[in-house]
Design a protein that fits this description.
3-stranded antiparallel beta sheet; 12% strand; 2 domains; mainly alpha
């Protein structure tokens, strides 16, 4: 990457980033956000991993995933079986979320990525390429195959005393696919993609930071000129995305999503998330009783993971978001860099809370033996799924640049000099 003008997406500081050595990276001088990272041979590596990922994705979805054997009766499942079973139980909300996060989002991400990489490899740039690449990046947080794999592990432990669980061929393909997709995401260099897209005729560089506006999609920095007509919006000359100085109504939207998640949090933890029927015995499990089951069976590391992911992480995320919202509202100048780090935490950890939703889906797919054995999703699972989705949307709605906008010029300059 050549020397370039960059506006930090987390604090809004306009700065010039130097050319990077192979494997090098650059960070924001004020908030520490990673701005650019050089990935050697990005195009070839990402293309090879994407093709391999699509082949593994086809195997993972086309063959038996897990088999459940109890008293001579056997059920086989595919990845989509849990979705169909949840839908059949009337839990279409959970079915839709599970289908999107475990199947649709990863599949679309691989397909769209291949559609972007092939023209780049052939050195052809169709007009639709920027839009497709934008969708690839938007889908990334919602692909949760790694969380789904943790759900499989929890499910197998819960069923180990009830029946025999056998792995199908697609489970191995699914496990490898997790690493292949992670490798493709790590190898992908967005700067390489955007550098090959023409910038148009309006990509003039701003002379002052006050005149700059950075594209949230392709990160191109252009001069923030007033619109020539009333109501006319400014679009990025490279990717055609709408240019916005800050996320519109960020605080209001984040507050609304946080409050909705808080309302759902208590019933999510108090109401049963599933009912298990085994040999005529019926047991309803909440999230905490599921953790207790793992503890009583000596699986304390797994119990700790489930407790942290399903109980502690959603609560921590809500507390962090509330704190950030209040600190911005009162124009706090206390440690803006640390507050920005807290925001990064909310973006990173939230997706792992989906593990219990996946456990319900997997158990519902596996245990389908009528009165002999069955698993049904309950109301608590709907509330818990809502908490996870709402907190993820809340983190996406919050604009961390507001943390720095609230500082006065003197405080902002002092924060830049001392890195505080």
């Amino acid at each position: 990457m050549h020397d370039a003008l960059t506006q930090c997406p987390e604090c809004g500081l306009l700065q010039r980033t130097p050319a990077l050595p192979p494997g090098g990276s650059s960070v924001c001088a004020r908030c520490g956000c990673v701005l650019h990272r050089d990935r050697p041979d990005s195009l070839n590596r990402t293309l090879a991993l994407t093709i391999a990922g699509l082949a593994l994705f086809a195997i993972a979805n086309g063959f038996p995933f897990l088999s459940f054997s109890m008293q001579g009766q056997v059920t086989q499942t595919t990845l989509f079986t849990g979705v169909l079973e949840l839908y059949g139980q009337g839990q279409w909300q959970i079915a839709a979320v599970v289908a999107f996060t475990s199947i649709l989002a990863p599949g679309l991400q691989l397909t769209l990525l291949l559609a972007v990489l092939i023209p780049l490899y052939a050195r052809r740039l169709p007009s639709w390429l920027p839009s497709l690449f934008r969708y690839v990046r938007n889908l990334t947080p919602w692909g949760m195959m790694d969380v789904f794999m943790l759900g499989i592990l929890v499910s197998v432990v819960k069923l180990s005393e009830m029946a025999t669980i056998l792995a199908g061929p697609s489970l191995f393909a699914f496990a490898v696919l997790i690493f292949v997709l992670a490798g493709a995401q790590a190898a992908l260099d967005p700067d390489l993609v955007w550098s090959r897209v023409p910038r148009g005729n309006r990509a003039g560089a701003p002379l002052r930071a006050a005149d700059a506006i950075g594209c949230e999609v392709c990160e191109l920095v252009v001069a923030r000129r007033p619109a020539p007509g009333a109501g006319l919006k400014l679009h990025c000359p490279r990717c055609a995305a709408l240019l916005r100085y800050r996320k519109p109504e960020s605080l209001e939207r984040t507050w609304a999503l946080v409050l909705a998640a808080v309302i759902c949090y208590l019933p999510a933890n108090l109401l049963p998330i599933m009912t298990v029927t085994s040999l005529g015995r019926v047991r309803s499990d909440t999230i905490l009783s599921g953790v207790g089951y793992l503890l009583t069976h000596g699986m304390w590391p797994l119990a700790a993971i489930v407790f942290v992911a399903s109980v502690f992480v959603p609560l921590l995320k809500l507390l962090i978001l509330v704190y950030l919202l209040i600190s911005v509202k009162v124009r706090s100048s206390w440690r803006p860099r640390e507050r920005t780090r807290l925001y990064r935490i909310t973006e990173t950890i939230g997706r792992w809370s989906m593990v219990d939703v996946f456990v319900v889906s997997i158990l519902a797919a596996l245990v389908r033996l009528g009165n002999l054995a069955s698993v049904e999703a309950q109301t608590g699972a709907i509330f818990f799924c809502a908490v996870v989705v709402l907190t993820m949307l809340a983190a996406m709605s919050f604009d961390p640049r507001l943390i720095w906008d609230r500082l006065g010029p003197d405080l902002e300059e002092r924060a830049l000099q001392h890195g505080a």
